[in-house]
Amino acid sequence: MSKTRASIFGDAPDPLDLSGFAPKAPQDIKAPPVDAIRAISEAARFPSREARPVPPPKRQQRRHRTGRNVQFNIRARQETIDAFLAIADQQGWVLGEVLEQAVAALERELAVKT
């Protein structure tokens, strides 16, 4: 065995013997039935990798072009948000309109008290 590397650009002094490389003969393996595999995996509590059905969205998307372009993020209790959305659904208003109506009602109430 020589310690010199073979050149990729020149002719190899001794051609490589590739007779040992040949495709393997196909094996005659019969796969077990799919039902048997499923029964065994369910008995062993192996989790399925099949996609679960996606639940429908809880609320319908509320996208309207109203000219309102300033975002207003607040934290509130879940009951308050549910009541806010219920008012919007009941009146058929978009969320920005519910906020405007609520602010106007609060301003009227505060004006009466003073």
Features:
mainly alpha; 3 helices; elongated; 114 residues
Short description:
The protein has 114 residues and is mainly alpha-helical.
Global outline: elongated
Largest beta-sheet details? none
Which band does the percent of strand residues land in?
under 5%
Total number of beta strands: 0
Count, helices = 3
Low-confidence stretches: none
Give the rounded overall mean pLDDT. 83
Succession of helices and strands: HHH
The helix content, as a percent range, equals 25-40%
Distance between the termini: 105 Å
Radius of gyration: 36 Å
Structural class: mainly alpha
Description:
The protein has a domain at 75-114. The model has no long low-confidence stretch (mean pLDDT 83). With 114 residues, the chain is mostly helical. The protein is elongated, with a radius of gyration of 36 Å. The protein is built from three helices and no strands. The longest helix has 19 residues, at 95-113.
Task: Give the helix/strand layout.
Blueprint: H1 34-43, H2 78-91, H3 95-113
